[in-house]
């Protein structure tokens, strides 16, 4: 089981962790949208009991245990799209995405 960050994402998360005094980036999923799942991302101030911890070049990534099977192997990037700066997820488990890009399905 793993989740990783690109260098750009690591640098962005590091700056947020310093500013917010967080312990790591929590990446999870929630049921929503027309395809079933959407990613959740937040700065974690402390680990939860059900978090699984990954260390990626000094940056802690926390994943709720119940989300691991859905996002295992995902690479998280941070990109500029027009005027927006957003996290982008490259998840090998995704089998379908909705047309608006807000949700995804896993097989």
Would you kindly provide a written description of the structure presented here, covering whatever features stand out?
The chain has 107 residues and is of the alpha/beta class. The protein has one domain: HesB-like domain (Hypothetical Protein Aq_1857, Chain: A, Sandwich), CATH 2.60.300. 17% of the residues lie in helices and 51% in strands. The chain contains two helices and nine strands; from the N terminus they run βαββββαββββ. The chain has helices at residues 7-20, 68-71; strands at residues 3-5, 24-32, 36-44, 51-56, 59-64, 74-81, 84-90, 94-97, 104-106. The chain has a four-stranded mixed beta sheet. A hairpin with a 3-residue loop joins strand 2 (24-32) and strand 3. The longest helix has 14 residues, at 7-20.
SSE order: EHEEEEHEEEE
Strand order of the largest sheet: 3-2-5-4
Question: Average pLDDT across residues?
Answer: 92
Uncertain stretches of 5 or more adjacent residues: none
Q: Number of helical segments? A: 2
CATH architecture: Sandwich
CATH H level, superfamily name: HesB-like domain
Give the oligomeric state: single chain
CA-to-CA gap between the ends? 17 Å
The gross shape turns out to be globular
Describe the sheet with the most strands: 4 strands, mixed
Class derived from helix and strand content: alpha/beta
Using DSSP, what is the number of strands?
9
Estimated radius of gyration: 13 Å
How many domain units?
Answer: 1
Beta-strand content estimate:
over 45%
The CATH topology annotation reads as Hypothetical Protein Aq_1857, Chain: A
| Helical proportion, percent range | 10-25%
CATH class: Mainly Beta
